[in-house]
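User:
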Amino acid sequence: MPKIKDLEDRVHSKTSAWEQMFLETQQLSSSDEYPNNKGVNLASMIFDETPQSEIIAAYDLNNEIYKIAPREDILTEMKEFYLKNGIAAPFAVRVVYLILNHPDFGIYVLQRSNKSENPYHWSVSVGGHEIYGEDSNTAIKRETLEEIQIPINIVSKQEYERLISSDINLDESGIVTYAGYLPNLELTKKDRDTGRIWIKKVNATVYIGRSRKVNFKFNNDFDYLLNKDLEVNGLQKEVNGIEFDPKDELLIKIQKKTKDYGFELQYLIKQFYDLL
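Assistant: Predicted structure:
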């Protein structure tokens, strides 16, 4: 087994042509021609085939930027590193998670569609990568709209506690607050095409929230939907099914059928159980 230090040196010695080109554009960010850019938009101009939404950063163990590149390139490097060396790559990507509660029915739990990572696993309400240049608040707002079509307002913990104890109308939006930060969290992933297991390291910002907004039809039991029942445009691409579970019942389900639930959901429910 290679030593960690040797592996770190090998990772840091590699600089892709993409990253070199990106770094060369950084100096233009403060120029008269591009006064308001932060670099990411310039990179998108150069690499037209890579949408801005696919550009993320990887961070080393000191939380310094190791690489800025298309998402699939970074995740592929992570996967290949693990499969070759048997340990997680010594860099992480930034992600955001939201555990969203419906006051009447419980936690929104989404079954992933046929995605490249952990297809058809039951997952946390909302989750995704931070686009390079985003902060975590911006990222979780974007991801929540993309995945479950719910606009959210982020408030302080004190304000959140006050609002959930009030008669605030949550029929058309949600209220959300910061719950915690989990650096260098190692997630177990299963590749859709090969079935091989690998480890993805993330720096995760976690939020909790509440909303009554429901954008889709329920089945007769009012607790579960399949892809064909989803009404929202684009939602079918993100999820295969949706259910609502009170947190105690969700824990029981996870214990009975652990393999059906993504590691993120299993870990986050236990980690933030008392806040939900």
